[in-house]
Design goal:
- The protein has about 500 residues and is an alpha/beta fold.
- The protein contains 14 helices and 19 strands.
- A 7-stranded mixed beta sheet has the order 2-3-4-5-6-7-8. It has a 5-stranded mixed beta sheet with strand order 9-10-11-16-18, with helices on one face.
- The longest helix has 17 residues, at about 5-20.
- The radius of gyration is 21 Å and the shape is globular.
């Protein structure tokens, strides 16, 4: 019986998210260190500067070579933010954490004066990571003002911060919903209501469950949103002076999966939602604003004390990332009676999985197994469309951003999917020097750079993590047998 509880518990904890997304499971992804090429430092030492228990101490600016760099340092003093200003009243539309509790927003420079990141906490129960919206300053030729990509919860604090940006750069002109993923679209309508003059742009294929409501039910009524054409040539948006985009769209059976990548031409930055993630060794600052749930998830068992120390924070973050990526890691067992109130116990050896995942750029296991494996050819074509752009960094909606990566690194991160190997383990593609894909300019660039890797791991060692994939593979098999997903194209 003990062997059955872990599988059942993992599904029970995560099923609301997976069903709500229509098999677009939450890709828990990427934290905050823009430069991954900074000098090595232990996780404990990095976290030591931020593991401060009292909330009022969290606002101090953290200067740390891997947690925060100059380009992405927090400009947010949260010490004076009231619980009322940090609350999102409509959280019941998607009852995920932090629910009706304190939901702090933190602002970072992605590109100083040109691109900003706003981050909040997001997750299921006590598995909390970060979710990010990106704000871009448009050029005069694109109409000026601000473009918002994938909004977050419009708390009073968040909107006050947006008003400050408007004073500096002009009004919010455009708000983009680039995906059908529910944890992103649930904020779109409420956010749009705060900026009544902004033009609204929405990825096609929006749906809801159990009732498939019209687009106006997103909270837009009586306003209307423009559906993004799959072909950018058929779009007459003024922001196309600064952007290009490429849309991934295919059916999962129950509903479509859609993700629209935006390429910011002036900065050569690729904006994504859930397609790729970078698992950082240290937690995002917003997660540490109140580390109580993080520390709870870090327990080895119900009796394990978890004081707020750098060592415990590092351990808790590692376990949180593994839970968010695999839904239930292989080294977790559970008992509803023995391990109250955690209900889980970690077995020896889980650290090996963390060592293989941390500081890596990859397709999230949940997205890979439950989504991309259903349409590998379509995903492959989409990745090639992205790689025609000469981007030098990527900004996903979760975990770390920006990540220094170009077409060569993105191709390698999608290697498992592009090889059509979604249903079988493959060896790690962590060294991009062995990747001969890409056009002649990419290969010449690799030669002149000495063929060096980007300074971090790329892809996951599937064979070595097979125990962690067990639940996901079983879940995917069950969904296919019941017709919730249609199976590979």
């Amino acid at each position: 019986m003990s062997n059955l509880w872990p599988r059942g518990l993992g599904i029970w904890l995560t099923l609301p998210v997976v069903v709500a997304r229509g098999m677009q499971p939450f890709a828990r992804s990427v934290s905050r260190t823009p430069s991954v090429l900074s000098a090595p430092m232990t996780a404990t030492r990095r976290i030591a500067s931020i593991a401060t228990p009292p909330r009022e101490q969290i606002h101090r600016r953290v200067v740390n070579d891997k947690l925060l760099s100059r380009a992405a340092s927090s400009k947010t003093d949260t010490s004076g933010v009231s619980d009322r200003d940090a609350k999102f009243d409509l959280w019941g539309a998607l009852p995920l954490q932090p629910g009706g509790e304190r939901r702090i927003t933190m602002q970072y420079d992605i590109i100083p004066g040109k691109m900003y990141g706003f981050e909040q906490k997001f997750g299921t129960l006590d598995v909390l990571v970060n979710i990010r919206m990106t704000i871009v300053v448009l050029s005069p030729s694109a109409g000026g003002g601000l473009l918002v990509y994938s909004p977050v919860a419009p708390t009073n604090q968040c909107i006050q911060m947006m008003r400050e940006l408007e004073k500096k750069h002009g009004k919010v002109r455009h708000i983009i919903l680039p995906t059908t993923a529910v944890e992103h679209k649930v904020f779109f309508g409420p956010f749009a209501k705060k900026f009544k003059s902004a033009d609204l742009w929405v990825a096609p294929g929006q749906w809801s469950f159990p009732l498939n409501l019209p687009l106006s039910a997103l909270g837009l009524f009586p306003r209307k949103a423009t559906i993004l054409p799959k072909d950018p040539k058929k779009c007459d948006a003024p922001w196309l002076q600064d952007f290009d985009y490429s849309m991934l769209k295919f059916s999962l059976g129950l509903a479509p999966f859609v993700e629209t990548a935006f390429y910011h031409k002036p900065s050569r930055t690729l904006l994504l939602t859930d397609a790729l993630v970078y698992a950082p060794e240290t937690p995002p600052e917003v997660v540490l604003e109140d580390p109580s749930k993080l520390l709870f998830r870090g327990k080895d068992n119900a009796r394990d004390p978890m004081p707020n120390t750098p060592e415990k924070i590092a351990k808790a973050w590692a376990k949180t990332v593994l839970f968010s990526l695999f839904l239930q890691p292989g080294k977790v067992s559970a008992s509803l009676l023995k391990d109250i109130p955690t209900f889980v116990a970690w077995e020896e050896g889980w650290q090996a999985s963390w060592e293989r995942v941390k500081e890596s750029l990859f397709v999230s296991p949940v997205i890979q197994i439950l989504v991309f494996s259903q349409a590998p050819k379509t995903v492959s074509s989409w990745v090639e469309s992205l790689c025609r752009w000469p981007f030098t960094s990527i900004v996903p909606a979760h975990f770390k951003a920006p990540v220094r990566a170009g077409p060569r690194e993105v191709r390698q991160a999608f290697k498992v999917c592009l090889d059509g190997a979604a249903q079988r383990p493959v060896s790690n593609g962590g060294d991009v020097r062995g990747d001969q894909s890409g056009d002649i300019f990419e290969r010449l660039g690799a030669i002149f750079s000495g063929g060096q890797s980007p300074g971090y791991k790329i892809g996951l060692p599937w064979q070595e993590l097979e125990g962690d994939f067990e639940l996901l593979r079983s879940f995917e098999k069950g969904l296919r047998s019941t017709g919730v997903v249609k199976g590979p194209e």
